Amino acid sequence: YPASLIELTVVSAAGTASGDTAITVTGYTLKSGEAYYYAIGTTAPTIGAGEIVDTTEWTAWDGDDDITAASDKKIAVIVASEFGEAKAYGSATVVSND
Fold first, then answer.
1. Could you give the C-alpha distances from 50 to 10, 53, 76, 83, 91, in angstroms and in order?
2. 76: β partners
3. What is the pLDDT of residues 36-63, one digit of tens each?
4. Using CA atoms, how far apart are residues 28 and 21, in angstroms rounded to an integer?
5. CB-side exposure of 77: number of CA atoms within 13 Å?
6. Which residues pair with 91 in a beta bridge?
7. Is the distance from CB of 11 to CB of 42 less than 8 angstroms?
8. Are 85 and 53 in contact (CB under 8 A)?
């Protein structure tokens, strides 16, 4: 298993609805069985390479839908393997449709 996480580029822009952000992730293409997860905080949440994703802290995301988040919060996006292990990580400052 890789010793470090693959780096994702995460960009936040104002979403369609009030209070939402539109997230764009580049730098990695999901493979079969893999999934995106996100978490929001005052600082960017972190996870270690190969660590099992705790779904009480990280929310499954389809990679497309807007996410409800306040401007200036930090959002982190990870890719989890089919076994729930963190493979890739990136973060950004939220830009919300205020």
1. 20, 9, 16, 10, 18
2. 39, 91
3. 999 999 999 999 999 999 999 999 999 9
4. 20
5. 26
6. 76
7. no
8. yes
Q: Is the dihedral of CA 6, 50, 31, 36 positive or negative?
A: negative
In this structure, how many other beta carbons lie within 10 angstroms of the beta carbon of residue 62?
A: 7
Report yes or no: 86 and 77 within 8 Å, Cβ to Cβ.
no
Q: How far apart are CA 66 and CA 55, in angstroms?
A: 19
Q: 36: which 2 tokens?
A: 């995106």
Residue corresponding to tokens 């005052």: 42
What distance in Å separates the CA atoms of residue 98 and residue 93, rounded to the nearest whole number?
A: 14
Distance CA 95, CA 19 (A): 9
Tokens of 87: 């493979």
Q: What percent of the chain has pLDDT over 70?
A: 98
- Is 76 in a helix, a strand, or coil? strand
